[in-house]
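Q: How do we represent a protein-ligand complex in a form that can be generated token by token?
A: Start from the inputs.
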Amino acid sequence: METSEISKPIQLDPKTIETIESRFNQTNGSRVAELITGLRPEDPAMPERLTEIQQRILEKYQLPDIALSFSLGVGFSRIINHKLTENGISFLLKDQTQSFFDKYPQLFAAYFPDKKAIGINVEKQKDPNYNDFIYNLTLMHEAIHALQDQHGDFNFLSIEWLEFEATIGSNLLSVYQNPEIRSLISQEQISKEMSIMFENFYLSIQAHEQQGGGTHKDKYTPENILRKIDGITDEQISSFKQNHKTNS
Ligand SMILES: [Zn+2]
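Then emit the structure tokens for the protein with zinc ion bound:
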């Protein structure tokens, strides 16, 4: 009598089924966004939330807003370079980074902790789409990694938080705070941009892993988010999987 009761599959209420289903339908970027910021990318409060986080990052590393890049042009990179020099960070020459960028041609730039230096992908710079803004943004992203290293952050911040700081710190978020620009972009458009940004963010976490940064992908599986955020048990998840099709 008792044994037959134990082997009976657990019943899931409609609300639980809906929760589990929505996690399996969520993209990697969206799950990362929710785990780090508490919001999904399409949430209308996301730009505001990211702007607050960005202000703290820029204050922490004493860096200017990337929006200044438009008025300063290449002058912006001089501010960053000065900041880097002050902190003992240098630049690598082309032949010092050639083999690295041959291996990772998709990268615009990289920070090399062992050399306390930044390398710029010179081949990428020849791309007709490459411009001052992309250069400044890339430089700022790597400058944040370099300053994180100087702060000792590599030892106690997770890969995704390190990457999140570099991505959000160098992001052009001030456009969303401008009422004139805001009136020209629909909420749908903003949601789309935020989603793309978080999908790219997920890809950069993956890139860090491929460069030997350890494996963190398991954190963003639907199963783990269901356990961590939604309080769904392993038994409930496996019961769902027995009765429903999932993408993973
Ligand atoms: Zn990075």
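The first helix runs from residue 2 to 7. The longest strand covers residues 109-112.
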